[in-house]
Amino acid sequence: MTTIAIETLSPDGATDDASLRASFARQPILNRDGMLCGYEIKVRAPDAPPEPTDDTPVTDTDPARGPATPPTPAQRVARAIARDLVQGDVRGALTGHPAYVDVNRDLLLDDAILRLPAERFLLELPPSLDVDDALIARLVYLHKRRYRFALDDVTQPTETFAKLLPYVEVVKIDVTRAPRALLPKLASVLKSAGKLLVALGVDAQSDFDIAHGLGFDRFQGYYFARAQSAATRRVSAPRHALLNLLQLLAGDPTVAQLEAELKLNPVLVMHLMKLANSSGLAVGHKVTTLRDAINATGTDRIARWTQLLLYADGRKVALEDDPLLQLAATRARFMELAIERMPDAGRDEADAAFLTGVFSFVDAVFGGSLERTLNILTLSRPIQAAILHREGTLGLLLAAIEALEGGEWERVGEVCERLQPLTVEEVAQMGLAAGAWAGVADRSAEGLERIED
């Protein structure tokens, strides 16, 4: 007997297919001040189901009109993507920021797209989109429903570009692939037309400087996490003070030793007192002394707080808006969650995984030799080998989260082959969970206090 996946009718008339599940990754989008202002959601669509046969029972029915035409495999995939985009794990990973998400023709033309809150999702139109009268009519209809559109992956004007331009408010230009001589004129014309410009592929400080100078409004890429941008960042406490504190914490210090070291750094004391008095750490009364703050917080949490504080921007910004700190915190939390799926992993392995993630970006803060900085931090050899050479289980997990950050789904799958029983779906799910954890870290007992000088 053939088993048929059960489809249920949703309020918008689209069917849910429980056998189809999409996976998602997120990429940060920064504003002109270098702060987080959104995420692009990279979609890994589920495999299309087989075409329905004549003997496949029809389950999508309308009592008033009788049996409906069974949805095509492409429609079922599109509906699964729309359903999964509004699940809690995606919503949590956005941490209050808007989402840019790729859509294809099938999703645009299906009413399942109406599940996406128009105020939270901006729909990206790919350059390969087949544009005809039916699609234009659909864009007009969705625009009346307050949906907004972005023209994605532009390198130069094309026929599709010209047809879609009147209906979009955002244009995303790949500044590394667009002809360099064309960029100034293209940016000027689009800005004059009132379009918001997003620079794609900004992985080097020089690319950011060029796009910024041309008036681009948003930037997508990992330039902010590269060593060459270290000179542009400011940290909220002296670097040497943070390093000294980390070295002390690595040696199982006494409360008196910690108290003496912290007293040398008033900014650190202020942060620690805030952390100790946060709702999750309160012990029934207000913490008023440094010694009480150390006892209430615990050395493990102080260590993690100090590690992440290395990445904090020196300006008065919320933790969830600081891109480098968010990236480091997300990667560290992912590593910790993922190592727990590995056989025989314990507390020590989880701590090592967190350290591997959090210090994999340390050269973006300090510049210079990554190996020298890791030696100063007295990290263990397995952690250093994972960061420097992607060796061992920690190195493979680091490679997995790097591939996820880039939306490189094939690469994620290749790494998972060496990390069994870990699957691509689990990696994606843990990536979203880690992002959600990092985004609310300043409001929970597990994370940090708001970074404000």
From TrEMBL:
Superkingdom per UniProt: Bacteria
SMART domains: EAL
Disordered: annotated segments: 44-74
Comp. bias regions, Low complexity: 55-67
HDOD domain boundaries: 235-425
PANTHER family linked: CYCLIC DI-GMP PHOSPHODIESTERASE CDGJ, PTHR33525
Protein name per UniProt: EAL domain-containing protein
Organism field: Paraburkholderia antibiotica
